[in-house]
Design brief:
This protein is α/β, with parallel strands linked by helices. Helix content is 42%, strand content 20%.
């Protein structure tokens, strides 16, 4: 943002902090100097951009419109700066990749080492988060692309489906339900669950299915870490949903099993999410090629009847 005007830079900082004192501290300015800068900007546009609020300042409708335009300008400038930098440094550079919790481990294991080998001078950042948060980061230009579930609306982003990721109900190996060849959904009634946050699509779908069969969803433990959820499942009588291919991982193969419950079988689509018109560096393009090779050519077909026991490693 260094080539935006100083006043525009100050304005956006206030938009982020919603507080003049915090913005001044962040910008290493005195508060009176920052106030004068905003006054000059308001005089230029002939309108008020902020109004005082109980805990700081709020944008006026004109301020909101200006912020939207400046955010767009920031994305264009950031793209331009990154494109010039990529051209200057050749195969060096920085790629910012987002990944959903379900696919992050496979991405880190099979894609990132190859990318680091292909581009030894490059810097690679991996941000793991839930789908909705990844969509926002891609839209804001803070990620070059994301690999995540596509069963939630991606708004104006560009998506490319690569595979499906079967999910299965999992319990500990010594769970009372673990030895049954087929489990009815009613059998889950006595047990509570460990799950991600309520806004996560997989949990929401599971709870809707449970409720449709007269079961009141009861989540005992929430976590944004799938490994932590599986750890809870492996040491209690709770159940959860997990990717089928995780059951063959060495740390889980001897500790948890998948249950065949037809009403709770899901195979959400997984794919790439990018910002239309955004700059994709050669480094990011190579990263996306490797992702497509790993997740596209070896796509996991939805399973009608997931294995009850761990798959062979």
């Amino acid at each position: 943002m260094s080539i935006l005007s100083r006043e525009a830079d100050y304005f956006l900082t206030i938009c982020e902090t919603r507080n003049l004192a915090r913005a001044a501290e962040q910008l290493d300015l005195s508060q009176p100097a920052l106030s004068r800068s905003i006054q000059r900007l308001e005089a230029h546009f002939g309108t008020k951009l902020f109004v005082r609020a109980p805990r700081g300042v709020e944008l006026t409708p004109m301020g909101q419109a200006l912020r939207a335009r400046l955010d767009q300008a920031k994305l264009v400038i950031d793209d331009a700066e990154r494109e010039v930098a990529q051209l200057a440094f050749g195969k060096a550079g920085h790629v910012r990749i987002g990944a959903g919790h379900i696919v992050a481990r496979r991405l880190a294991r099979h894609v990132l080492p190859r990318l680091a080998h292909d581009r030894p001078a490059a810097r690679i950042s991996l941000h793991v988060d839930f789908n909705a948060a990844l969509f926002d980061l891609v839209d804001q230009g803070r990620l070059d692309f994301a690999l995540c579930g596509l069963n939630e609306p991606a708004h104006d982003l560009q998506v490319k489906a690569l595979t499906h990721t079967p999910l299965v109900v999992v319990v500990r190996k010594a769970h009372p339900l673990a030895d049954l060849s087929e489990v009815r959904i009613d059998a889950l009634r006595p047990y509570r669950s460990a799950a991600p946050g309520a806004a996560v699509t997989g949990r929401r779908l599971a709870e809707e299915r449970l409720a449709a069969h007269g079961l009141t969803p009861s989540t005992a433990i929430e976590s944004n870490d799938l490994a932590a959820i599986l750890e809870v499942v492996a040491t209690t009588d709770m159940f959860s949903l997990a990717p089928l291919d995780w059951l063959s991982e060495p740390e889980w193969a001897q500790r948890v099993v998948g249950l065949s419950i037809k009403e709770l079988q899901f195979a959400p689509p997984t794919g790439l999410v990018t910002r239309p018109g955004g700059f994709i560096s050669p480094l990011a393009q190579r990263a996306m090629e490797l992702v497509e090779q790993q997740f596209g050519s070896a796509a996991v077909a939805p399973s009608k009847k997931p294995a009850r026991r761990p798959m062979a490693g």
